[in-house]
Design goal:
Blueprint: E1 12-14, E2 17-19, E3 26-31, E4 36-42, H1 46-65, H2 68-84, H3 86-97, H4 101-125, E5 130-133, E6 137-145, E7 148-152, H5 158-171, E8 175-179, H6 186-198, E9 205-207, H7 212-221, E10 225-231, H8 234-244, E11 250-254, E12 259-263, H9 269-281, E13 291-297, H10 298-314, H11 333-348, E14 352-355, E15 359-360, E16 371-372, E17 375-378, H12 385-388, E18 395-401, H13 404-411, E19 416-417, E20 419-423, H14 427-436, E21 441-444, E22 459-460, E23 463-464, H15 469-475, E24 477-485
Parallel strand pairs: 7-8, 7-10, 8-9, 10-11, 12-13, 12-20, 13-18, 17-18, 20-21
Antiparallel strand pairs: 1-2, 3-4, 5-6, 6-24, 11-23, 14-17, 15-16, 19-22
The structure holds nicotinamide-adenine-dinucleotide.
The site of nicotinamide-adenine-dinucleotide has 31 residues, from helix 7 and helix 8.
């Protein structure tokens, strides 16, 4: 029986044991929908990371030599246990993060189990190349686990993104020292209990809770950790790269975005409208793939604006635990202040607020929570702060274009290059524009349709490297070529 009750103090998971931080220090964990502290999380430090690395190093010889079929069995058991406890995990996720419960149940938790199942099965099909030099030699390439690897994840999709990293790392035979966001630690803590129940050997996965500087940097700096997989802000990514690059570590950086949503007049208007409301505001706009810059062809601009605003005003913001809340709380007071500040900046830059722009104060249990109205801003050009900097909240801007060239110039303005969405019924144009948009992930006439086999990641300041499918298994293995002369 796994215990899903939330203890007053969360613990690290090191060497197969749940233990408190060596410093004895803790940080408040706040429910963003109520503003109340509901548990404490370890404020771990260098010594806890050292302990975790020691446990991972000890576990590595056996785990890396464990046949893929056995790794599959235990990782698949973890997936099954996540599925079996979907409701408890979803409740924990929504309490910790503020996202609607229906979203955690429908997206976050099912995707966490899918991550384990996908890479558990993937490792049984993973193979490497061989190259024959006619009559001379055969080369074969070994794909060997790296050793101890570090995985650091953000708060917006807590268990979803945490497992997206650790599942391929473990499947490939590595041992992991992982750090979830200190803002949303709860489901990672519960995952430790699941891993124990599933029979994951001690030390194979170690979870150290704490802050970026307190834990994350010590993971990045540790000489025994040979690869770092990081998802988070571009600023933290830059800092991590500056530490890891001179140590010649393998690095995967999934960073921020400011994604364009390019809408041509010939699109399927109804489908586009419905999806654009989702791509703008899903998870309170706190998905790195949300389309925060909506670019609309001039001939349908007014029609779009009227219809879009009508839909946006229908979105109910409120208690994440209520089934009809379309929008929950943003993740923290700090983030609430940041997003509200961005809305002020937009006004100072001359933008007009067409919808939203204000905090929401629900009655009852959520009166102290951090809620923001879905906000739509118009009248700003591509080079202002509002259209260049990531807001990562329920705020989108509208801009119009009259030609394909103009749409591309707007789409490619700025330093980010994570994803883009293109709406058109002209297949040639869809492909032409897709080829020219500077982003790593393009959706045509859809959004967030994910096939886990596809490469996932950004260009420009949105990151380095790709996750997903074979890309992830290649990242978490070292290629070694063996050349045998005939
Ligand atoms: P963040 O960079 O503040 O933190 C992410 C994680 O890194 C946290 O666990 C944090 O404690 C840790 N961290 C912070 N500073 C660190 C340091 N110096 N060394 C090591 N670890 C450190 O990001 P966030 O606010 O948690 O998440 C939001 C950001 O994540 C947004 O920019 C969003 O676009 C990005 N994101 C990107 C993707 C993607 O796939 N590209 C997906 C989700 C979120």
């Amino acid at each position: 029986m796994i215990d899903f009750a939330v203890p007053s103090h969360l613990e690290n998971y090191i060497g197969g044991y749940l233990i408190g931080p060596l410093s004895g220090k803790f940080i408040d964990n706040v429910n963003p929908a109520t503003g109340e502290v509901y548990c404490q999380i370890p404020d771990s430090g260098e010594k806890d990371v050292e302990l975790a690395v020691g446990a991972a190093k000890k576990a590595f010889p056996k785990w890396s030599a464990t046949p893929a079929e056995e790794r599959f069995l235990v990782l698949n058991r973890i997936a099954t246990l996540i599925d079996e406890h979907r409701d408890a995990l979803a409740e924990a996720e929504s309490t910790d993060n503020g996202k609607p419960l229906w979203l955690s149940k429908r997206v976050d938790i099912p995707r966490a189990s899918a991550n384990f199942r996908f890479f558990a099965t993937g490792i049984m099909h993973f193979s490497a190349d061989s190259h024959t030099m006619e009559q001379t030699a055969i080369n074969y390439t070994l794909r060997q686990p790296i050793g101890v690897v570090g995985c650091i994840s953000p708060w917006n999709l807590p268990l979803y993104l945490f497992t997206w990293k650790i599942a391929p790392a473990l499947a490939a035979g590595n041992c992991v020292v992982a750090k979830p966001s200190e803002v949303t630690p709860l489901t990672a803590f519960l995952l430790a209990r699941i891993c124990k129940e599933a029979g994951l050997p001690e030390g194979v996965l170690n979870i150290v809770h704490g802050t970026g500087p307190g834990v994350g940097e010590h993971i990045v700096k540790h000489p025994a950790i040979k690869a770092i997989s990081f998802t988070g802000s571009t600023r933290a990514g830059e800092r991590i790269a500056s530490i890891a690059a001179p140590m010649f570590k393998k690095l995967s950086l999934e960073l921020g975005g400011k994604n364009p949503n390019i809408i041509f007049a010939d699109c399927d208007f109804g489908k586009m409208l419905k999806t654009t409301v989702q791509s703008s505001f899903a998870n309170q706009g706190q998905i790195c793939l949300c389309g925060s810059r909506i670019l609309v062809e001039e001939s349908i601009y007014e029609k779009f604006k009227t219809a879009f605003l009508e839909e946006v005003k229908k979105l109910k913001v409120g208690d994440p635990m209520e089934a009809d809340s379309k929008q929950g709380a943003v993740v923290s007071k700090v983030h609430f202040d940041k997003v509200m500040g961005c809305i002020e900046t937009a006004k100072e830059e001359g933008g007009s607020t067409l919808a939203g722009g204000k905090a929401v104060k629900p009655e009852g249990r959520c009166a102290g929570g951090y809620f923001i109205e879905p906000t739509v801003i118009e009248g700003l050009g591509p080079h202002c702060r509002t259209n260049l900097e990531e807001i990562f909240g329920p705020v989108v801007t509208l801009q119009k274009f009259s030609t394909e060239e103009e749409a591309l110039a707007l789409a490619n303005a700025g330093h980010y290059g994570l994803s883009a969405t293109i709406w058109t019924s002209d297949v040639s144009r869809a492909n032409r524009v897709a080829m020219q948009v500077e982003a790593g992930i393009i959706w045509v006439n859809c959004w967030l349709l994910r096939d886990l086999r596809t490469p996932f990641g950004g260009i420009k300041n949105s990151g380095v490297g790709r996750e997903g499918g074979w890309e992830a298994l290649r990242f978490f293995t070292e290629a070694k070529n063996v050349c045998v002369q005939l």
